[in-house]
Specification:
By secondary structure, the protein is mainly beta. Among the domains are: 212 residues, no CATH class; 73 residues, no CATH class; 53 residues, no CATH class. Helix content is 10%, strand content 28%. The strands form 10 sheets. A 6-stranded mixed beta sheet has the order 11-17-16-15-14-12, with no helix packed on it.
């Protein structure tokens, strides 16, 4: 995606927030203790303290977004001194890079450091067009900024780790650990969308203070733009780009997205997915921040708020390798939990994870169910495509085998857009009805959570429901304050021979399975009472002699 480029020699002009020059010596008498951390951060540690640099860059003559109070034109951003904590134990500013990873990791990962402000020597057009750097401009500008700031920064202070795949040691390896570059605005990375890339740039590495600043991936830096939107406005992308250092190249996928599955606008929250902030339980366990509770037997479980405690359940899908359901209670106590579901939906969120690597397939089980859909076509609002380039969806009747509002939904042009698309535009009345409106269904509809105001049971017969072959039932029992008590049924009664249920009332608290090759006969006056979300699961033959009026 990024073209390699030749290095251009650039002059510079700088504005910095600090006038303290770097130390004349780099050594310290403090004894260095080495620790090999048990974590799965792929290219960077997920535990311990990372001392990082943040460099905030504005192009010369940038006049975009004069209304921004977060980063006024020709001035340093207002969050210059709060973006990174200066010490491990200080109070962290909400929405700062330090605060986010401290909260997500439950203090396992601390990112501290110092920030600098820089205005480029030339305007953006000069780098892109005159120097012919195009979308590679950011890499050369990043190098220009670091060289300009060299007299103020002791780069040796930012080499404290030796990063090896999934096993990291807190001792110097001659390379700077982490530099965060954030542009006020730029064409690439696109600043209007606050996007980024998980490198400082490409081409030759930079050496300052005898320390290597590694370019390429994995390297010493990540780059983002859109700083005019402030810390919150850029955090979605910044966490994602740092996530590439934690999880590697590539992206997670959504279960029915097909070849378009390597996308960012997933209907799931996390570090790697863009829409929500809160890291999901699968990510957190892979990074060593929490330990999931595995449900292997029937039982009751108390789930406090996930963002506050990291408590979550994992339930294997029987008969499916590397498929699990994960249960998280989201009460939106944390600011980073605020966009799990649109319009403040609170409760038990259930999603399936398919795969066991750093980038699995996710599928949120939206509590308000699955539906049939129809669509017509309209012009894409932000492109020059034809008038029929974007589907407009209308929700029809409930269908357990249909699609939720977070899913990729098939449309009526199977050879276009992979034959399916996310709900971006909706029209409640369908063709010829009301004008369509922007909806962005992957953000949810405020009804995705299981709670006592909506759906309380997740079972094979409900919509949404568990896989029929999983025989899993989940029932909400009670809620006290922000904690939810759930009962999970994962065990079953399997008939081992042809069986007749005699007349009278029969009560079951577990699923009853009729396997293939086996027949269950229910007598005429038999009353079956399935409790606690259990059910009769028919894979073989059922002869029901009861008469219903």
């Amino acid at each position: 995606m990024i073209k390699k480029f030749f290095i251009a020699v650039l002059l510079f002009f700088i504005i910095v927030n600090s006038f303290s020059f770097k130390s004349s010596h780099h050594s310290t008498n403090k004894e260095i203790k080495q620790h090999r951390y048990s974590n799965k951060g792929l290219h960077i540690t997920s535990k311990g303290t990372i001392k990082a640099l943040a460099v905030f860059i504005q192009f010369l003559n940038d006049s975009t977004h004069p209304e921004s109070s977060e980063w006024p034109i020709n001035r340093s951003p207002v969050f210059l001194n709060t973006y990174l904590d200066s010490a491990e134990n200080q109070f962290s500013a909400p929405w700062s890079f330090s605060d986010y990873f401290k909260k997500m990791s439950f203090d396992s990962l601390r990112i501290i450091g110092k920030s600098y402000f820089y205005i480029t020597r030339y305007n953006e057009k000069y780098y892109r067009d005159t120097l012919r750097l195009g979308n590679s401009e950011y890499g050369e500008v990043n190098k220009e900024a670091l060289k300009s700031l060299d007299s103020l920064i002791d780069f040796s202070l930012y080499d404290n780790w030796t990063f090896k795949s999934n096993s990291h040691i807190d001792t110097s390896d001659g390379k700077v650990d982490l530099i965060i570059f954030l542009y006020r605005n730029s064409k690439y990375p696109p600043g209007e969308a606050a996007q980024g890339i998980a490198v400082a740039g490409y081409g030759k590495d930079l050496i300052l203070d005898k320390k290597i600043i590694k370019f390429g991936f994995p390297g010493s830096g990540i780059t983002n733009s859109g700083g005019w939107q402030g810390m919150k406005g850029t955090l979605r992308s910044m966490k994602h780009e740092f996530g590439h250092l934690l999880f590697g190249a590539g992206h997670p996928a959504y279960f029915n997205a097909g070849s378009k599955g390597q996308i960012l606008f997933l209907g799931i929250w996390g570090i790697m997915p863009i829409p929500g902030f809160c890291a999901n339980a699968y990510e957190k366990e892979r990074l060593g921040w929490i330990k999931l509770t595995d449900v292997k037997k029937n039982g009751s479980f108390n789930l406090p708020d996930f963002a506050a405690t990291g408590t979550a359940l994992r339930i294997p899908v029987k008969g499916r390798r590397n498929e699990v359901y994960i249960l998280e209670n989201h009460q939106q106590i944390s600011i980073y939990d605020s966009e799990i579901d649109r319009d403040g939906g609170k409760g038990l969120m259930i999603y399936k994870v398919i795969g066991s690597g750093n980038h699995p397939v996710y599928h949120v089980q939206a509590a308000d169910g699955k539906f049939d859909w129809i669509n017509y076509w309209t012009h894409h609002p932000w492109s020059a495509d034809s008038l029929d380039s974007l589907p407009v969806y209308t929700r029809l009747s409930s269908n357990k085998n249909g699609y939720s509002i977070r899913d990729w939904i098939p449309h009526n042009k199977p050879n276009y857009l992979n034959g399916k698309f996310q709900i971006f535009l909706m029209d409640d009345d369908g063709p010829g009805g009301k004008p369509f409106y922007v909806y962005e269904g992957w953000k949810g509809d405020g009804k995705a959570a299981f709670n006592f105001d909506g759906t309380e049971i997740f079972a094979p017969w409900t919509n949404p429901g568990t896989d029929y072959n999983s025989n899993l039932s989940i029932v909400l029992r009670e809620q006290k304050n922000t904690s939810i008590k759930v009962e999970c049924f994962v065990e079953e009664i399997t008939l081992t021979e042809n069986t007749v249920f005699p007349p009278g009332e029969l009560e079951f608290s577990n699923n009853v399975v009729i396997p293939e090759g086996t027949t269950l006969t229910i007598s005429e006056k038999t009353l079956l009472n399935f409790k606690n979300g259990s059910s009769l699961i028919v894979k073989g033959k059922l002869v029901d002699n009861r008469k219903f009026e």
